[in-house]
């Protein structure tokens, strides 16, 4: 009798959906019914923009709706972030941003028009790309040792382009200058990474710290000279460039962390659908290969991991901002 009861129970156990199936059911519970906006809070040509335009066709197919990349630059990325924070929380508007912007903003601004923790809902981190430290060919420093020496001896001749005051690449440049004993270097803000890259490539500035995804082509075509890369290891595309870790330089973990977020009150099924489809898009071999070719690594760890990262990095970068005495309002 006991044997028959167990056998009768087996079909019911097999029919019970595992956790993965339940999660998938939640994702499929949300359907897109009109065009989707993917807001990039920077000008075209930077890392976020490149990634958004790589993902948009994949998401259009997955959502069954047109996904439009919308560049809304200004206020160090906060203008576009605020636009998404105040958008209808219906799953049809998302933000693709260098998440370091959201981690530094609470310390940089006394008053923000939105609360990053309350008004933006993480969907998932997307990629990590280390920074490339690169110099204009006119700068008389051929490698890391020569640059550190030049920076210490002639800091006033160093003009460092960055994507905006308080941006993570600006703070990284400040940490490097302090390490070299070059506090007198001039930090030159631009409206986003693409504008900073153009300035460095033209010689308007002579040094830049910027995401590998956007900077790599400039190094490859000789417009900029690669010096080093952030992170614990060298980039496969530039095996001769030492890492910050092996040089003993600070800001080893700095880089561009690209993530996707939705308005804070977006329903859980919509967030789950975004998380799943972004992960699926970046798992496609051709997309992952393109990210790798651009110096990035896919990092789709999901909403919970992204939220934990934001909390940790907000604390870490807040300390750097306070030490540098930077305030934007």
Automatic annotation (TrEMBL):
Keywords: Signal. Residues 1-21 form the signal peptide. InterPro entries: BUG (IPR005064), Bug_dom1 (IPR042100). The keyword Ligase does not apply. Coiled coil: none annotated. Belongs to the UPF0065 (bug) family. This is Tripartite tricarboxylate transporter substrate binding protein.
């Amino acid at each position: 009798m006991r044997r028959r009861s167990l056998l009768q129970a087996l079909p019911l156990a097999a029919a019970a959906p595992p956790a993965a199936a339940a999660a998938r059911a939640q994702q499929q519970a949300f359907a897109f019914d009109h065009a989707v906006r993917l807001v990039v809070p920077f000008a075209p040509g930077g890392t976020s923009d490149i990634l958004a335009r790589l993902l948009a066709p994949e998401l259009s197919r997955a959502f069954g709706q047109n996904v439009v990349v919308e560049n809304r630059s200004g206020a160090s990325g906060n203008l576009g972030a605020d636009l998404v924070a105040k958008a209808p929380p219906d799953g049809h508007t998302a933000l693709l941003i260098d998440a370091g912007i959201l981690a530094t903003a609470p310390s940089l601004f006394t008053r923000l028009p939105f609360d990053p923790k309350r008004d933006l809902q993480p969907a998932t981190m997307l990629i990590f790309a280390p920074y490339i430290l690169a110099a204009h060919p006119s700068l008389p420093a051929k490698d890391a040792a020569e640059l550190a020496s030049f920076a210490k001896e002639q800091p006033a001749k160093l003009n460092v382009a960055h994507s905006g005051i308080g941006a993570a690449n600006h703070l990284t440049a400040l940490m490097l200058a302090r390490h070299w004993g070059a506090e007198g270097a001039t930090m030159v803000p631009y409206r986003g990474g693409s504008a900073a890259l153009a300035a460095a490539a033209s010689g308007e500035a002579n040094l830049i710290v910027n995401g590998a995804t956007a900077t790599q082509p400039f190094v490859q075509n000789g417009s900029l000279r690669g010096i080093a890369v952030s992170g614990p290891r060298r980039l496969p595309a530039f095996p001769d460039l030492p890492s910050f870790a092996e040089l003993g330089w600070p800001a080893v973990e700095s880089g561009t962390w690209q993530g996707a977020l939705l308005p804070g009150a977006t329903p859980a099924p919509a967030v789950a659908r975004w998380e799943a489809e972004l992960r699926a898009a970046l798992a496609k071999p051709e997309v992952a290969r393109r990210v790798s070719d651009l110096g990035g690594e896919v990092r789709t760890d999901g909403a919970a991991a992204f939220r934990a990262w934001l909390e940790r990095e907000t604390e870490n970068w807040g300390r750097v901002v306070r030490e540098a005495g930077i305030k934007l309002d």
